[in-house]
Amino acid sequence: MTTWLNMTLQDGASPIMEQLIFFHDHTLMIMLMIITTVMYMMTTLLWNKHTSRFMLEGQLIETTWTIAPAIILAFIAMPSLRLLYLMDEIHNPTMTLKAVGHQWYWSYEYSDFTKLEFDSYMIPQEENQASTFRLLDTDNRIVLPMNSPIRLVVTAADVLHSWTIPSLGVKTDATPGRLNQVSFSINHPGILYGQCSEICGANHSFMPITIESVSANHFINWVSSLS
Ligand code: CUA
């Protein structure tokens, strides 16, 4: 989760998010190169007389400054497309979780197991205890096995919502009448936090997502304790 003064991305909790962070840093370096070059050119322009009796055209420089940006853009576009198609891939998921957005809470269905479904409401501030995080903790957390590919299907029952976990690199619109699919696997045990990120009404800010990432054994124990 994000804590005070954290201005950068959260640490990646899934292989995809790690790659997304690498891509972000790569793109930032290219931007830095462009910004320094442009700033240098704009500064030197201040000391330029802007006149030349003999320079009427410059085919070489025109060709260069047309093609160079295209090549630079390809260095961003190629890894971007690689990631885009990597995120679209479903790697033989071990289980499926269904998330349904409601005004204003999420409900979850573990369709691989019988009758395993529940609503997940934010724990209100009045009831907030020292062990919970304000506006981020839910009364029923999603429990998921770590190191296993998981398929997530997302939909909504009323209006648009968006199921978003920054540390997983997952952000999927929850649309009524539509089923969106993403896949991810969680790198480590722990608790991951997320929020709805589609302005969905008065209590949009109060429908957080909490995941408990546990070992496969713990997960099986949790499932069998509920059924
Ligand atoms: Cu649901 Cu915003």
Automatic annotation (TrEMBL):
GO terms under cellular component: mitochondrial inner membrane
Catalytic activities: 4 Fe(II)-[cytochrome c] + O2 + 8 H(+)(in) = 4 Fe(III)-[cytochrome c] + 2 H2O + 4 H(+)(out)
Main location: mitochondrion
Membrane-spanning parts: 27-47, 67-85
Annotated keywords: Copper, Electron transport, Magnesium, Membrane, Metal-binding, Mitochondrion, Mitochondrion inner membrane, Respiratory chain, Translocase, Transmembrane, Transmembrane helix, Transport
Record's keyword annotation contains Lipid biosynthesis: no
UniProt membrane topology term: Multi-pass membrane protein
Domain Cytochrome oxidase subunit II copper A binding: 92-225
GO terms under biological process: ATP synthesis coupled electron transport
Gene Ontology molecular function: any one: oxidoreductase activity
Co-factor: note: Binds a copper A center.
Localization annotation: Mitochondrion inner membrane
Keyword presence, Membrane: yes
Cofactor requirement: Cu cation
Matches recorded under PANTHER family: CYTOCHROME C OXIDASE SUBUNIT 2 (PTHR22888:SF9), CYTOCHROME C OXIDASE, SUBUNIT II (PTHR22888)
Family, as annotated: Belongs to the cytochrome c oxidase subunit 2 family.
Oligomeric and partner information: Component of the cytochrome c oxidase (complex IV, CIV), a multisubunit enzyme composed of a catalytic core of 3 subunits and several supernumerary subunits. The complex exists as a monomer or a dimer and forms supercomplexes (SCs) in the inner mitochondrial membrane with ubiquinol-cytochrome c oxidoreductase (cytochrome b-c1 complex, complex III, CIII).
Biological function: Component of the cytochrome c oxidase, the last enzyme in the mitochondrial electron transport chain which drives oxidative phosphorylation. The respiratory chain contains 3 multisubunit complexes succinate dehydrogenase (complex II, CII), ubiquinol-cytochrome c oxidoreductase (cytochrome b-c1 complex, complex III, CIII) and cytochrome c oxidase (complex IV, CIV), that cooperate to transfer electrons derived from NADH and succinate to molecular oxygen, creating an electrochemical gradient over the inner membrane that drives transmembrane transport and the ATP synthase.
Protein's name according to its UniProt entry: Cytochrome c oxidase subunit 2
UniProt organism field: Reticulitermes santonensis (Saintonge termite)
Protein encoded by which gene: CO2
